[in-house]
Design brief:
Helix content: 10-25%
Structural class: mainly beta
Number of strands: 14
Distance between the termini: 30 Å
Order of helices and strands: EEEHHEEEEEEHHEEEEE
Number of domains: 2
């Protein structure tokens, strides 16, 4: 088990920033060849332009003027060598009690899916439907599986089948609690909000506190498949 308690400063990314970084290429693993495959992917500035033109402008809004917050993630969902881009809006204008509006763009900037009542985590599943990778979102109080029907992903996640991730959550918590650092006075372990889109299905995030370091919050990342636990300390804000 890998247990690292890092005492250095670690700056959290904030959702108040407009968007999240993206790169021109995404490196993915090909299970058949075990080789790294470069996926074509638009950069963050390009995605921001798409959001402005296709999502905000029809509503009379803009990123510059209205400071609309959002999260993005890019992944090649249909294995065609080009990324699909998931945009989850975080502004109250686009959110309700069950979740927020989300959009999916292809790598040319075309909107290929619109979704309602969506919240993080947005998790890549290990399964495929009609050639497209399934994913899981939190919607209306439950994890929901999103499967491609041959034309699109569902537009209302709250109507999709529930997914049981609670068993793995409890197992991941047990891995954290078994670490030497947590046993030395750790307490108050809680699931953490994912700050990334397309979290791998086998990765779980938690926070906990430590009586020996009252001015820090500890962030634990668990690989449920291997049992590895990485822990970082973050100064309390």
């Amino acid at each position: 088990m890998n247990n690292r308690g890092l005492q250095g400063l670690f700056l959290l990314g904030s959702l108040t920033l407009i968007g999240c970084s993206s790169t021109d290429g995404i490196s993915t693993d090909n299970a058949d060849s075990q080789a790294s495959v470069e996926v074509k992917s638009a950069d963050a500035a390009t995605i921001a332009t798409w959001i402005d033109q296709s999502v905000l402008m029809p509503q009379g809004l803009s990123l510059e003027t209205d400071k609309i917050r959002y999260m993005t993630g890019s992944a090649d969902l249909n294995s065609d060598g080009s990324a699909e881009h998931f945009v989850l809006l975080q502004d109250r204008y686009f959110c309700g009690s069950g979740g927020c509006a989300a959009y999916m763009f292809d790598n040319s900037g075309k909107v290929i899916n619109r979704m309602s009542v969506t919240r993080t985590p947005v998790v890549l599943a290990d399964s495929y439907s009609n050639g497209w990778q399934d994913f899981i979102v939190w919607s209306n109080g439950a994890y929901r599986q999103m499967s491609f029907n041959g034309e699109s992903y569902p537009s209302n996640p709250s109507l999709e089948p529930k997914v049981d991730r609670d068993t793995n959550v409890q197992a991941a918590i047990a891995y954290v609690m078994a670490t030497e650092l947590y046993q030395q006075d750790g307490y108050d372990i809680l699931p953490a909000d994912d700050k990334e889109i397309w979290t791998p299905a086998n990765i779980y995030h938690f926070t906990f506190k430590h009586y020996g370091d009252p001015h820090s919050v500890y962030q634990a990342t668990v690989n449920i498949d291997s049992g590895d636990v990485d822990i970082e300390s973050v100064p309390m804000q």
